Amino acid sequence: MTGITHIALGLTTLYALRIAPTAQENIIVGAVCVLGSLAPDLDHPNALLTRKLGCVGSLLSWCLRIVSRHRGVTHSVWF
Question: How far is Cα 59 from Cα 13, in angstroms, rounded to an integer?
């Protein structure tokens, strides 16, 4: 999946759950859903979130690749 499809899945989850009653809360919950949907790919050096976070993203990606392979620990229930 690409970064865009991860974002689409996160926003679809937000729409399906509809847990935030106000517009401001929807924005906050939407941002959490988008970041949460992009987080599993942090272990890939070319992932959207890895690139957007710059040096911090590269460092996170490198650390995650040391402890796990791509689609390893970050694609589990525990992450």
Answer: 29
What are φ and ψ of residue 63, in 5° steps? Answer: -65, -40
* pTM listed for this prediction: 0.62
CA distance 11 to 73: 23
Percent of the chain with pLDDT over 70: 82
Q: How far apart are CA 26 and CA 20, in angstroms?
A: 5
CB 39 within 8 A of CB 79: yes
Residue 34: CB atoms within 10 A of its CB come to: 20
Angle, nearest 10°, between helix axes 3-17 and 23-38? 140
